[in-house]
# Entry
Amino acid sequence: MRVSDFPVDIQPHLFPQPSGDLIYRCLQCEEIFNIESLLYTCPECKSVLLIEDREWQRLKEFSGSFWRRLFDYRKMLNHPALKGIFLYYEIIAPVIPLEDIIYLGEGHTPVVQANDGLRDWVGVDFYFKNDGQNPSASFKDRGMACALSYLNYLVRSQNLTEVLSICASTGDTSAAAALYSAYMSKKVKSAVLLPHKKVTPQQISQPLGSGARVFEIPGVFDDCMKVVEHLADNYHVALLNSKNAWRIQGQESYSFEVAQSFDYDLANKVVLVPIGNAGNITAIMGGFLKLLDLGVIDTLPKIIGVQSEHADPVYRYYRETDPSKRIFRPVTVKPSVAQAAMIGNPVSMPRVIRLVEAYEQVPNSPGVFVVQVSEQEIMDCQLIANRNGHIACTQGGECLAGLLRARKEGIVSDQEVAVLDATAHALKFAGFQESYFGDNLNGAYEIVPKDELRNFPTLVEAPGVERLPAPGKPLSEDEFQKFVVATAREIARELDLKEKGSG
# Structure
């Protein structure tokens, strides 16, 4: 849509100029630091950081109605920098010039309503937000688009050379980091650390395909993360895990899109999100709080974090109902099909604690909850969701299992509408489905396949057909017709089809 076709009062705001005064703020000692260098933890106390705009109040010069109209009109623009998560430029990273923004097609993933059968089974209306339809097939692209755009700005403005991006990953982070770094290949090289044999073949193929150096480390994600932290503390690298506060900024776009999908009416809405390294639930809470503060939304949605019983440190922390008695303790994880959430010591836990407190201090806040589910429930729910027209990953299955658990525990009522985060594409976890169908999942997952959820291909070799089609060996016309008729008849028998005109 041409700029001249937009309302006159909106036109001057469509293409924003850099603004704001962004700083890093430590969540423990409250020290602030300049953003002109990449910081991941506080130099004083080593706690994690959040990005804060010290000129935030300038945005309140405009009404919530104005921001809603601006965001809605911007969706009709064809400017690459504003087509992705930076459609919400002013509340994500307004210091990055538009020419430095990297857009690979991320953001604005569909919100797909559950069909009648699935809604009846759960007992409440709900939607999957399919973040697997991001370019590297997971929600991680939201944070990478912001982090790499900021890195792109630093590289240009400071004439940096030979920048190496690095991350630890359970699969999705490495795919996103490698993809966005590859787009900047003349400026940025990429390296990723993965836990050996803890990442699906589909996931490990992604950073390899993007040209990243891939290192497999004995142990689990938490072990990889410690190595990456040491590298970031002692070498010149750009850390791209969620310790990077710019990642959190980009992932807030999930909240903005959910609000926009429901025309900014979040009354009686519930958002369910799997918790791994805890960056995503942090970003989602922070995003909704920003929208409320600007008057873009009138009420907060209820937030429910979901964890597998095989990796549940956040659930255990909030299981203690007395806040004064809560003590965070990392856990030793066991194998989980929800691999992206198989993290026993989430680096963003201090952010979670801070944001939950802020969320629940809002008048009439519907609150933040954490529920625990089994591996059996996760895998069964993924299969059931996808048999009803979705493309949910195992983390999406974890969210559906979490919704069922929240219903059982009375956290979600009949009148509420839920949005479930399917963080990645189902194809990334096809191996788990294959193992479920073949009943050969490792016993450590503690999953027993259910016959009604298993599925297999059927080889059709029609009886009475002497020659079958084969490459380089064409059939005669009569032979081919005989093959078609006999094969169709056999398939009709398998499907119990009735011939036309048979009554």
Q: What stands out?
A: The chain has a mean pLDDT of 95. The radius of gyration is 25 Å. The chain has three domains: 111-129+258-453, 139-251, 458-503.
